[in-house]
């Protein structure tokens, strides 16, 4: 089983802001993982995923 913190991020493909009624907006980033295809990219938030912070800033 592979864990996210064992993987390497190659790039951030896209950024989007998710808005829902009654909840503060949340920014999500589409992450491309090393050795995986773009179709396997995952949406992550800065709050939930610490490795993104170094790439985004």
If you had to describe this structure to a student in words, what would you say it looks like?
The protein is mainly beta and 57 residues long. It has one domain (4-56): OB fold (Dihydrolipoamide Acetyltransferase, E2P), CATH 2.40.50. 9% of the residues lie in helices and 47% in strands. The protein is built from one helix and three strands. It has a three-stranded antiparallel β-sheet with strand order 1-2-3. The model has no long low-confidence stretch (mean pLDDT 79).
Tell me the distance between the termini: 30 Å
The overall pLDDT, averaged over residues, is 79
At the fold tier of CATH, the topology name is OB fold (Dihydrolipoamide Acetyltransferase, E2P)
Helical content, roughly? Answer: under 10%
Figure out the total of helices: 1
In one word, what is the shape?
elongated
Strand content: over 45%
Strand ordering within the main sheet: 1-2-3
Number of separate domains: 1
What is the CATH architecture descriptor? Beta Barrel
Q: Could you spell the SSE succession in H and E letters?
A: EEEH
Protein name: Chromo domain-containing protein
InterPro entries: Chromo-like_dom_sf (IPR016197), Chromo_domain (IPR023780)
Pfam family, one: Chromo
